[in-house]
Amino acid sequence: MLKKDIRKKYIEKRRSLTSSDLATLNDLLFIRFQQARLPFIEVLHRYLPAAGRNEPMTDAIAAWLGCMNPGMIELIPKADASGNVLSSFAYDENTILETNFWGIPEPVGGVPFDASRIDLVLVPLLAFDDRGYRVGYGKGYYDRFLATCRKDCIKVGLSFFGPAENIDDINEYDIPLNLCITPDRIHEFE
Protein backbone atom coordinates (compact mmCIF):
# COMPACT_ATOMS: atom_id res chain seq x y z
CA MET A 1 0.00 0.00 0.00
CA LEU A 2 1.16 3.55 -0.62
CA LYS A 3 1.82 5.93 2.28
CA LYS A 4 -0.97 8.28 1.20
CA ASP A 5 -3.51 5.44 1.31
CA ILE A 6 -2.23 4.12 4.64
CA ARG A 7 -2.26 7.67 6.02
CA LYS A 8 -5.90 8.16 5.02
CA LYS A 9 -6.95 4.78 6.45
CA TYR A 10 -5.23 5.28 9.82
CA ILE A 11 -6.40 8.86 10.26
CA GLU A 12 -9.93 7.51 9.90
CA LYS A 13 -9.23 4.64 12.33
CA ARG A 14 -7.99 7.18 14.89
CA ARG A 15 -11.02 9.43 14.36
CA SER A 16 -13.33 6.51 15.13
CA LEU A 17 -11.89 6.06 18.65
CA THR A 18 -14.08 7.24 21.52
CA SER A 19 -12.68 8.99 24.59
CA SER A 20 -13.20 5.72 26.49
CA ASP A 21 -11.27 3.81 23.79
CA LEU A 22 -8.43 6.34 23.99
CA ALA A 23 -8.18 6.10 27.78
CA THR A 24 -8.05 2.31 27.66
CA LEU A 25 -5.57 2.17 24.77
CA ASN A 26 -3.26 4.73 26.39
CA ASP A 27 -3.29 2.74 29.65
CA LEU A 28 -2.46 -0.46 27.78
CA LEU A 29 0.34 1.26 25.83
CA PHE A 30 1.85 2.52 29.07
CA ILE A 31 1.72 -0.93 30.67
CA ARG A 32 3.26 -2.52 27.55
CA PHE A 33 5.96 0.18 27.36
CA GLN A 34 7.05 -0.69 30.91
CA GLN A 35 7.81 -4.22 29.67
CA ALA A 36 10.33 -3.06 27.04
CA ARG A 37 13.96 -3.85 27.80
CA LEU A 38 15.74 -0.54 27.52
CA PRO A 39 19.21 0.58 28.58
CA PHE A 40 19.78 3.55 30.91
CA ILE A 41 18.36 6.65 29.21
CA GLU A 42 20.15 9.94 29.84
CA VAL A 43 18.32 11.97 27.17
CA LEU A 44 14.75 11.37 25.99
CA HIS A 45 13.14 13.18 23.07
CA ARG A 46 9.36 12.81 23.00
CA TYR A 47 6.52 14.37 21.08
CA LEU A 48 3.58 16.18 22.65
CA PRO A 49 0.33 14.99 21.03
CA ALA A 50 -1.50 17.36 18.71
CA ALA A 51 -4.96 18.45 19.76
CA GLY A 52 -7.78 16.56 18.07
CA ARG A 53 -5.62 13.88 16.39
CA ASN A 54 -6.17 11.08 18.95
CA GLU A 55 -2.43 10.44 19.18
CA PRO A 56 -0.93 8.18 21.86
CA MET A 57 -0.09 10.14 25.00
CA THR A 58 3.54 10.38 26.13
CA ASP A 59 3.27 12.04 29.56
CA ALA A 60 3.04 8.87 31.68
CA ILE A 61 5.79 7.17 29.69
CA ALA A 62 8.13 10.16 30.08
CA ALA A 63 7.38 10.40 33.83
CA TRP A 64 8.05 6.67 34.28
CA LEU A 65 11.29 6.86 32.28
CA GLY A 66 12.35 9.82 34.44
CA CYS A 67 11.81 7.72 37.59
CA MET A 68 13.68 4.75 36.14
CA ASN A 69 16.53 6.92 34.83
CA PRO A 70 17.41 9.51 37.53
CA GLY A 71 18.71 12.76 36.09
CA MET A 72 17.23 12.06 32.65
CA ILE A 73 16.95 15.13 30.42
CA GLU A 74 13.60 15.41 28.66
CA LEU A 75 13.30 17.12 25.29
CA ILE A 76 10.39 18.07 23.04
CA PRO A 77 10.40 19.14 19.39
CA LYS A 78 9.85 22.45 17.73
CA ALA A 79 9.28 22.61 13.98
CA ASP A 80 10.70 25.21 11.65
CA ALA A 81 8.26 25.12 8.75
CA SER A 82 10.42 27.35 6.58
CA GLY A 83 13.07 24.63 6.30
CA ASN A 84 11.03 21.55 7.29
CA VAL A 85 13.44 21.07 10.21
CA LEU A 86 12.77 19.75 13.69
CA SER A 87 14.87 20.74 16.72
CA SER A 88 14.86 19.47 20.31
CA PHE A 89 14.45 21.74 23.33
CA ALA A 90 14.65 20.99 27.05
CA TYR A 91 11.26 20.42 28.64
CA ASP A 92 10.08 20.54 32.25
CA GLU A 93 7.10 21.82 34.25
CA ASN A 94 8.28 25.43 33.78
CA THR A 95 8.49 25.29 29.99
CA ILE A 96 6.13 27.74 28.32
CA LEU A 97 4.26 26.13 25.43
CA GLU A 98 2.52 27.60 22.42
CA THR A 99 0.39 25.67 19.93
CA ASN A 100 1.76 25.76 16.38
CA PHE A 101 -0.26 25.86 13.15
CA TRP A 102 -0.72 22.03 13.23
CA GLY A 103 -2.15 22.08 16.77
CA ILE A 104 1.07 20.74 18.32
CA PRO A 105 2.33 22.28 21.59
CA GLU A 106 5.88 23.61 21.21
CA PRO A 107 8.32 25.37 23.54
CA VAL A 108 8.57 29.14 23.41
CA GLY A 109 12.21 30.15 23.33
CA GLY A 110 15.08 28.01 24.54
CA VAL A 111 18.26 26.73 22.97
CA PRO A 112 18.23 23.73 20.61
CA PHE A 113 19.73 20.58 22.13
CA ASP A 114 22.35 18.57 20.24
CA ALA A 115 20.49 15.64 18.66
CA SER A 116 23.62 13.49 18.77
CA ARG A 117 23.23 13.27 22.57
CA ILE A 118 19.73 11.74 22.45
CA ASP A 119 19.43 8.14 23.67
CA LEU A 120 15.75 7.46 22.90
CA VAL A 121 13.18 9.13 20.65
CA LEU A 122 9.44 8.53 20.99
CA VAL A 123 8.50 8.90 17.33
CA PRO A 124 4.97 9.93 16.35
CA LEU A 125 3.31 7.88 13.64
CA LEU A 126 0.01 6.99 12.06
CA ALA A 127 0.99 3.45 11.10
CA PHE A 128 3.99 1.12 10.87
CA ASP A 129 4.78 -2.10 9.01
CA ASP A 130 6.47 -5.38 9.94
CA ARG A 131 9.87 -4.00 8.91
CA GLY A 132 9.67 -1.04 11.29
CA TYR A 133 8.99 1.62 8.70
CA ARG A 134 6.42 4.21 9.65
CA VAL A 135 3.89 6.48 8.04
CA GLY A 136 3.67 9.93 9.57
CA TYR A 137 1.77 12.97 8.42
CA GLY A 138 3.84 13.32 5.26
CA LYS A 139 6.17 16.26 5.76
CA GLY A 140 9.31 14.24 6.60
CA TYR A 141 10.22 16.21 9.72
CA TYR A 142 11.00 13.16 11.85
CA ASP A 143 12.98 11.28 9.20
CA ARG A 144 15.21 14.35 8.71
CA PHE A 145 15.49 14.73 12.50
CA LEU A 146 16.30 11.05 13.11
CA ALA A 147 19.08 11.26 10.52
CA THR A 148 20.84 13.74 12.86
CA CYS A 149 20.65 11.40 15.86
CA ARG A 150 23.35 8.85 16.74
CA LYS A 151 23.18 5.49 14.96
CA ASP A 152 22.55 3.76 18.32
CA CYS A 153 19.73 6.12 19.31
CA ILE A 154 16.67 3.99 20.09
CA LYS A 155 13.67 4.92 17.96
CA VAL A 156 10.35 3.85 19.50
CA GLY A 157 6.93 4.27 17.93
CA LEU A 158 3.63 4.14 19.81
CA SER A 159 0.57 2.84 18.00
CA PHE A 160 -2.96 1.94 19.02
CA PHE A 161 -3.06 -0.52 16.11
CA GLY A 162 -0.94 -3.44 14.89
CA PRO A 163 1.21 -3.27 11.76
CA ALA A 164 -0.22 -2.07 8.47
CA GLU A 165 0.32 -3.84 5.18
CA ASN A 166 3.79 -3.34 3.74
CA ILE A 167 4.54 0.26 2.91
CA ASP A 168 5.33 0.08 -0.80
CA ASP A 169 6.84 3.52 -1.33
CA ILE A 170 9.69 3.46 1.21
CA ASN A 171 12.67 5.53 0.07
CA GLU A 172 16.29 6.07 1.13
CA TYR A 173 15.26 8.87 3.53
CA ASP A 174 12.86 6.69 5.57
CA ILE A 175 14.43 5.65 8.87
CA PRO A 176 12.99 2.52 10.50
CA LEU A 177 12.06 2.18 14.15
CA ASN A 178 13.85 -0.13 16.59
CA LEU A 179 10.60 -0.85 18.45
CA CYS A 180 6.93 -0.12 18.09
CA ILE A 181 4.74 -0.52 21.16
CA THR A 182 1.08 -1.43 20.69
CA PRO A 183 -1.47 -2.22 23.40
CA ASP A 184 -0.95 -5.96 22.94
CA ARG A 185 2.69 -6.34 21.88
CA ILE A 186 6.21 -4.97 21.63
CA HIS A 187 7.31 -5.18 17.99
CA GLU A 188 11.09 -5.37 17.62
CA PHE A 189 12.89 -4.66 14.34
CA GLU A 190 16.42 -5.39 13.11
Summary of the model, kept short:
With 190 residues, the chain is of the alpha/beta class. It contains 4 helices and 11 strands, in the order ααβαβββββββαβββ. The chain is globular.
CATH topology: Rossmann fold
- Average pLDDT for all residues: 95
CATH architecture: 3-Layer(aba) Sandwich
Helix content: 10-25%
> What is the alpha-carbon Rg in Å?
16 Å
Runs in which pLDDT lies below 50 for 5 or more consecutive residues are none
Largest sheet: 7 strands, mixed
Q: Can you tell me the overall shape?
A: globular
The CATH homologous superfamily corresponds to NagB/RpiA/CoA transferase-like
What gap, in angstroms, lies between the N and C termini?
Answer: 22 Å
Secondary structure tally: strands = 11
- Indicate the multimeric state: single chain
CATH C-level name: Alpha Beta
Strand line-up of the largest beta sheet: 3-2-1-6-9-10-11
- Please report the number of helical segments: 4
In sequence order, what are the helices and strands, one letter per element? Answer: HHEHEEEEEEEHEEE
> Which range does the strand content fall in?
15-25%
Count of folded domains: 1
Protein structure class:
alpha/beta
